Task: inverse folding
């Protein structure tokens, strides 16, 4: 029992480090709220595979900010259901992984207000929102996990680019993906 709790604490600590790593990575010019561009962070430790996706809400649900209309609420619900169906989002190559859980961390998590110079009104302000999802898997053979195919481009056609980064026991890396180059070689 104590060993299992320690493993969970270590796993969450590892995920926390990955999130901090991704924040640092983002602050170095990689991750800005840019329509059409999403970010994926992947961590493999022991038998745990965790994938965090962060995307502009407009690319996923077709609008920014809090859903106000019935149609926006419906679109957000449909998008959330699509995101929860991980087989439409990722293809895991070997590793014998099974889903533990999918958690939507925030549908309006990050709001940014900034001035747009290209609008007709000077200093017009817009609210921008992101959606964050955490996918957690248990892999029976994590050393056999070779690559991850990202299928977000098919499911959400407004996504044109994905900035991916990963860390494993054997190293870390980063790569920009698009519809034609959508595979990450992890090991």
Result:
């Amino acid at each position: 029992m104590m060993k299992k709790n320690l493993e969970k604490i270590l796993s969450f600590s590892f995920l926390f480090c990955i999130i901090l790593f991704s924040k640092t990575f983002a602050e170095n010019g990689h991750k800005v709220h840019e329509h059409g561009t999403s970010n994926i962070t992947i961590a493999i430790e022991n038998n745990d595979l965790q994938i965090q996706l962060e995307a502009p809400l407009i690319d996923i649900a077709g609008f920014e900010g809090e859903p106000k209309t019935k149609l926006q609420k419906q679109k957000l619900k449909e998008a959330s259901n699509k995101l929860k169906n991980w087989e439409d989002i990722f293809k895991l190559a070997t590793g014998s992984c099974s889903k533990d859980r999918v958690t939507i961390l925030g549908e309006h998590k990050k709001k940014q207000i900034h001035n747009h110079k290209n609008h007709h009104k000077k200093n017009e302000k817009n609210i921008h929102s992101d959606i964050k999802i955490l996918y957690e898997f248990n892999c029976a053979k994590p050393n056999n996990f070779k690559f991850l195919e990202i299928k977000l481009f098919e499911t959400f056609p407004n996504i044109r680019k994905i900035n991916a980064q990963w860390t494993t026991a054997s190293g870390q890396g980063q790569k920009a993906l698009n519809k034609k180059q959508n595979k990450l070689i992890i090991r």
Observations:
- The CA atoms of residues 85 and 136 lie 12 Å apart.
- Residues 2-185 form one domain.
